[in-house]
Amino acid sequence: MSTVNLTKNQTLVLDVLTRSEGPLSAYTILDKLRDHGFRAPLQVYRALEKLLEFGLVHRLESLNSFVACAHREHACCSHGTVAFAICESCGQVSEFHDHVIDDQLNSWTRGKGFKPSKTTIEIRGLCAACNI
Amino acid sequence: MSTVNLTKNQTLVLDVLTRSEGPLSAYTILDKLRDHGFRAPLQVYRALEKLLEFGLVHRLESLNSFVACAHREHACCSHGTVAFAICESCGQVSEFHDHVIDDQLNSWTRGKGFKPSKTTIEIRGLCAACNI
DNA sequence: TGCGTCACGTAATGTTATTACATGAATTGT
DNA sequence: ACAATTCATGTAATAACATTACGTGACGCA
Ligand SMILES: [Zn+2]
Ligand SMILES: [Zn+2]
Ligand SMILES: [Zn+2]
Ligand SMILES: [Zn+2]
Fold first, then answer.
1. Of the residues A4, A23, A100, B95, which has the maximum number of CB atoms within 10 A of its CB?
2. Element (H, E) at A54
3. What is the pTM of this model?
4. Is B110 at the interface with chain A, CB within 8 A?
């Protein structure tokens, strides 16, 4: 659980994401940080790039947006693939891990000689609260 | 295995995707169809929307691009979630299904009361040929 | 004929992401 | 102390991806 030294911009971006209820697009983050001196998309994208490297943030491909990791205490990157359930009504995102799925994907890739670098699993739908 | 009647534009787009080695972005499709009278992105996006509905085409979220379904004879939509392995070197895409993964995801969503509408599974990495 | 639906066309605009270039601070090796 | 290198940052411009708004003609059906 090595703690990383974040730069000022990285800290600002991570704080915004951590405080947010749901995922945010890069441009939404930019808007939220204009008061703190952010003026260009690149400032956000550069910070996000590092935060993704550190495993502190995840990118939701199906939403073109970003969330703070929900399992920071566990060093997310270390325990396999992460999956997300995304509610299309309220925007809530649940992050989870599943070793059976991991194993199954690994078994497929090994069988094919495919060397995975990054795996995306995203379930869009309605959360329990919205599915009344 | 009901065959759908495609419109002219839908046929053109599907043909381009079917002939293509790998996934194509909407704008690449547009360029390839300029000779056939395509002039605006919307023509492509409208055709893609229908082809996605029909299950003849898949969208790769992590690539913002589209592929023809590799299992048309099996009526792709009918047998659960589709997964893709995408080679970051040669661009080749392998489409596959795995019932264990399906079951595992379904068991998670049932447990949470989450009602899935669409699931994305994409593995980025290096295919066997590129991973020498 | 009048009406609704649907595929299509065109233009404009909105959203997301990257490239190119410049500056200043911190780090390293001598 | 000095040059060389690296890294975070700033700014502007542009590229890539996607949607909204509006209008037309074809078709099926009361
Ligand atoms: Zn995480
Ligand atoms: Zn919800
Ligand atoms: Zn398919
Ligand atoms: Zn390859």
1. A23
2. helix A41-54
3. 0.94
4. no
